[in-house]
Amino acid sequence: MAKAIKIRKGLDLKLKGKPEQTISDVSNSPYFAIKPSDFPSLTPKMVVKEGESVKIGSPIFHDKYREAIQYVSPVSGTISEIKRGEKRRILEVIIKADSEFSSETIDTSGDTKEVILKSGLWPFIKQRPLDIVADYNQTPKAIFVSGFDSSPLAPDYEFLLKDMKEALQAGFDALQKLTNGKVNVTIENSNKSTSVFSSINGIELHTINSKHPAGNVGTQIHQIDPINKGESVWTVNALDVARIGNLFLSGKVDFSKTIALTGSEVESPSYYKLIGGASLTNLVEKKIVSDNVRYISGNVLVGTNVGKEGFLGFYDNQVTVIPEGDHYKVSFTQGWLAPGFNKLSNSKAFLSALLPKKAYDVDTNLNGEERAFVVSGQYEEVFPFDIYPVQLLKAAITNDIDKMEKLGIYEVAPEDFALCEFVCTSKINSQQIIRDGLKVIEEECM
Amino acid sequence: MKFLRNFFDKRYEKTNKKWYPLIESFETLVFTPNHTTKSGSHIRDGIDLKRTMMFVIVAMIPALLFGIWNVGQQHYIALGEEVAFMDKIMHGALRVIPIIAVSYTVGLLVEFIFGIIKGHALHEGYLVSGMLIPLIMPVDTPLWMIAVATVFGVVIGKEVFGGTGMNVLNVALTTRAFLFFAHPTSMSGNTVWISGLKEMKANGTLADGVSGATPLGDLASMTTDSPAYANIQDFTENGITFSRALMGDYPGSIGESSVYAILIGLAFLLITRIASWRIVVSFFAGGFVMATIFNLFAGDNAYMQLPAIHQLMIGSFMFGMVFMITDPVTAAQTNKGKFYYGFLAGFIGILIRVANPAYPEGIMLGILIANVCSPLIDHMVLNGNIKRREKRLAKASA
């Protein structure tokens, strides 16, 4: 049954650098990468060597423990480098692109699951609990797709998907075959009448008001059909549903995407067409207004700091460029004693509280030092779950598996704690704590 | 600011590493460090613990200023002298500022020692405690007692548990409770609330009709053989009237008598959302309910006859409500738990105040008891959440 969800808790961060709705092309970057670090708890097993040539859709590595999950090349070219870190852990597999692309052909007539696994699109399907690539041996109780992204400066899915109805429909048809339950899609309440999702068949369409984290699929799952111990649900990003749909329509994998280049340091933020895994160099060339900046693949709350020469993350549809905050701030003018007209804060302790409409350019400074939990009730204001966030974090910090289970670790992903991390007076890195907690749960309980 | 930056950078170069926490503590007063986010949320809220704590101190300023004036006021009333406003302020400042100085010096010294041992800069908790301690002391408490009690409060009340954010009991109240039980004659009775009263008594300069008792002392005497007032009407009409209770110009601990000054602080803390309104409201409700119960079953007990709202406006109830019970570390952590926690503290505080003649004021003990209970309250609230989750699971698997 479709639900109209209302959440009261949450926070929309008003940042400068919203993307305008124009799409431009970027000249193809010469280098692309697949990064195992985009996939938590993955142990990759290489199937190609440096210097080998690959096509679009050729496997690069697969999951060592779940061999059917392949990670494939987004372009055709040659493997130029396999970057390794400590203990020879693979950090990045870099592919030098050819000028002409050719792709592997895929027979889409077989079993849906087999087709998606073989195509290399499977990693787009994630599971909860654990927030990892879905386990193909299981059948989820339902599949959840968020129809919009409410994170700061996020791309507008309705805008990106407005001409892709056919692909979306094909994608949802495929997802429907993966579960015995429902395929739940949640859209913004304000888009109810115009949404591209409202004409899709075979899905359960819910609406939610738009305060972040309303667009996080975790929030939606919790409101619609919360996960109990022993259950699993799968989630797919709406844009990637269309990608899966395209596979079934054309028989080819296509990793091209339209991303939003956003943030206060971007000259004119807008949308750009490129291919997944591309190096950011070409994209950001001549578009950044200052020097000391951070390049984030993804949004400011959950994205990855990749650097100017870095690569677009596997799941990311957004690149954000914000100023670095690696300088000292004088407390009287910019720090803890300042009046704070230009301090973005969920507290009411700065005069910026009087300017609710203002948009801010926020740098990466911690704005304080790390402390023990002191202030209480802060996380609860931005955490629309029937879960006690601080207590769950404490259980995770102390590796108390029993407590984590009881307090709802199965229902959350690190991204659900992103706002808690933002508002925290004590500057505690809650997302990493939850990720570590999930790792313990995976090792001990799964 | 460049020269300050250079100054701190040089200190780091020239000093042994083990003293870094000390430099850092002072450095971070002037500069927010250049620490940046690494992963996760790349931007962070502007608020930090320093600003939070500073706001609590700012909220205490009205109570402190009133306290300084009131110390002078009571002193000259006891002497029977009429003096100018500034003279009262002068006298009050001379009595109160040493207490503040001792509290901060001793407390911060202990904090620095622990900080250097543990290798971290000063955590801001004591900045608030250090101001709370003077405000809840009788003005004639000897300075050495304050020093000893502060060491006890910081070490046993906080550092043994791991420092700021880890303590079970409110540090300032631990300090006061220590003094109350270790040196009861300096913390209660009729001779400690007005500065210089003992000397006046000895020299015979005490004005006629000045007893030196607090309103609570007077009220407690109503159930004894030598009541300060004939009956409760006498107290509320000729003694501490309701408006005088709000004003606070009567003997008491330094910062806790003026309801007006405290309410200014409360408004500031609620508007800036530093204090939890849940705790404040429920604490008031708890005290009010208990005082009303006493009203209903008062019989001929004059203390219990005091109207509930009047009861809450005297003594340290309001001060405790704004500055003590709202300490987020020792309070219940869950939003639901905060209601129970505040109510419990207010309820027990008034209960002890009125029902137990050994303690002229019960708010301190009420809050400390609620501090001890707060983990239990949270545990029960969490259990409710866990039960809901288990029920959902049972329903899903049925």
Biggest interface, chains and residues, is: A-B, 77 and 63 residues
Structural class of chain A: alpha/beta
Choose one word for the global shape of chain A: globular
Unreliable segments of chain B (pLDDT under 50, ≥5 consecutive)?
none
User: Hey, roughly how much beta strand do the residues of chain A contain?
Assistant: 15-25%
Mean pLDDT of chain B: 90
Mean pLDDT of chain A: 90
Please tell me about this protein's structure.
- The complex is a heterodimer of chains A (446) and B (398).
- Helix content of chain A is 20%, strand content 21%.
- In chain A, 53% of the residues are buried.
- With 446 residues, chain A is α/β, with parallel strands linked by helices.
- Chain A is globular and about 65 Å long.
- The two termini of chain A are 31 Å apart.
- Chain A is built from ten helices and 21 strands.
- Chain A has two domains: 4-250, no CATH class; 366-445, no CATH class.
- In chain A, strands 1-14-13-12-15-10-11 form a seven-stranded mixed sheet, sandwiched between helices. Chain A has a six-stranded mixed sheet with strand order 2-17-16-20-18-19, with no helix packed on it.
- With 398 residues, chain B is mostly helical.
- Chain B has two domains: 7-30 and 49-187, no CATH class; 216-249 and 275-385, no CATH class.
- Chain B has helices spanning 2-14, 20-30, 49-79, 85-118, 125-135, 143-157, 171-182, 184-187, 197-203, 215-221, 232-238, 242-247, 259-271, 277-296, 302-305, 308-313, 317-324, 335-355, 363-397, and one strand spanning 31-32.
- Chain B is globular and about 70 Å long.
- Chains A and B meet through strand 19, strand 21, helix 9 and helix 10 of A and helix 2, strand 1, helix 3 and helix 19 of B.
- Strand 21 (329-330) of chain A pairs antiparallel with strand 1 (31-32) of chain B, so a sheet runs across the interface.
